[in-house]
Amino acid sequence: MDEITSRDEEKARAEKDRQLEEQRAKEQAAEKARQEERDRQKERDQAMEKGRKQGKEEERAREKQKGGSGVIIVIALIVLVVIAAAIAWYSVSATVTDVTPGTALPFTTNYAVSFPEGKTVTLGNSHINVLSDQNEVITDIDGARQKLLVGDQRVIPERRGKITVFGVTLMDVNYKITLTYKGERDNRAYFDMTVQTSKGVPDMLLNRLIPSEIDARVA
């Protein structure tokens, strides 16, 4: 009788151990499945994060490219404007003719100028040659000579100046020039030059009447 009881107990323990083993196996399988799911989710999250980062980088690259293109366009426009302005400036021409004096000349611009001695320069349509001798200067304007002492004046009669660019008239103005002798230095004769005009003329246009041989500075 005891032996039967002992065998039954062993069978019961074996069955219980088997059930525990199956339970552990199920739990291990479930944990493995959960871990695999966590790993897959982690991979999905990493892939999504990588996609977001890549998208941001691509967007920044596009914005940078757009910004760079905008800067290039602005620079190109500035260059075109500068080139057009330079072409227009070097296409400016001045034509000077004689007129009958009498037009009101209410606008005045003063310059400090110097002429090279012994060299004929053209101011407007007047040919000017000066030669200093101590405190006096001989001025030859269009063949008419006049000696000036320091402080003496010589007037270039009224003229009409027309400034055009590409054949279009920018300014049509009457003007008169007065030269006041200031003395000689380094083989150059110095004068105060007063330009009276019938209209207000921008300095940059008025300077087109003054040749490069004359050192002229607005006083």
Shape: rod-shaped
> What order do the helices and strands follow?
HEEEEEEEEEHE
User: Which structural class matches the secondary elements?
Assistant: alpha+beta
Number of strands: 10
What can you tell me about this protein's structure?
The chain has two helices and ten strands. By secondary structure, the protein is an alpha+beta fold. It folds into two domains: 1-90; 95-218, no CATH class. β7 (153-165) and β8 form a beta hairpin. The protein is rod-shaped. The N and C termini lie far apart (140 Å).
Brief rundown of the structure:
This protein is of the alpha+beta class. It has helices at residues 2-90, 203-206; strands at 92-98, 107-116, 121-123, 126-133, 136-141, 144-149, 153-165, 168-185, 188-197, 215-218.
Pick out its properties.
alpha+beta; 219 residues; 2 helices; 2 domains; 6-stranded antiparallel β-sheet; 42% helix; 4-stranded antiparallel β-sheet
Topology:
Layout lengths: L1 H89 L1 E7 L8 E10 L4 E3 L2 E8 L2 E6 L2 E6 L3 E13 L2 E18 L2 E10 L5 H4 L8 E4 L1
Antiparallel strand pairs: 1-7, 2-9, 2-10, 3-4, 4-5, 5-6, 7-8, 8-9
